[in-house]
Amino acid sequence: METAVSFIDPVHRNLQFLLGVGVILLMIGAALYVSRSNLYASQGNKAFNNKDTEKALLWYQKASRCKPCPDKHKIALGYLLMKSGERSQAETVFKKLVQSNNRDTRMQAQCNLATCYWLQGQKDEAVALLQEVFEQYKNTLVYGNLGYLKILHGDLEEALAINQEAYSYNNDDITIMDNLAMNYYLLDDIDKAHEIFQKLIPKSPQYAEPYYYYALTLNNRGEHEAAVEQINIALEKDISFLSPLTRDQLEQEAARLKNT
User: Fold this and answer.
1) How many CB atoms sit inside 10 A of residue 94's CB?
2) Which of 60, 97, 126, 225 has the greatest number of CB atoms lying within 10 Å of its CB?
3) Per-residue pLDDT at 260
4) SS (H, E, C) 136-161
């Protein structure tokens, strides 16, 4: 009795192999196509970390044109548009995201939209929108944004209540600590401002404002040399695009402290 032998000729075997490779390549290509927005956003994030906002914006614009594009990349695009002075375009981005069914996306979009309103001079609308968000969400981002805008709006007592509550919620966040310390300083509670600044400054805040207000606090306490040291650090930092502090104001205060 003969044994049946299965036989595949070499040409057929090579064809099967090539077809298998082709399918795999197609799958990889499809995955790369779908994840293009993530690749572009990754490049944008690298550029932003290197302080190249213009290049970061270009990469996130490319990411946003991909289908699909995650909402987090659109939030980043809106932020970069704001930072670049394109506030009207940023507003359009955030208003679309405010309609999202995703709770976190909607909250982040509302917070950024409020900032956009503020930068365009719609200050009452900005505070009102953040107050509305605050009634629905209480997290570090919302506490930080509302506490800061309340200070900028001049509502220092209301701001203090929010910033104290925020500090109880998260006493390790740089923005919340900065808001509370500045709030105390502006209310002339120098000792409490100093207490918070001593906890904040070792965390090496990114922007100039904490060092600027810490320098003013130290000078108020008679610690002149320490004040000059902090104002010098402030001079080396960027100023937040939302801050009312100007480079001229910072330099003038530095000169005043050094000549005192």
Assistant:
1) 26
2) 60
3) 83
4) HCCCHHHHHHHHHHHHHCCCHHHHHH
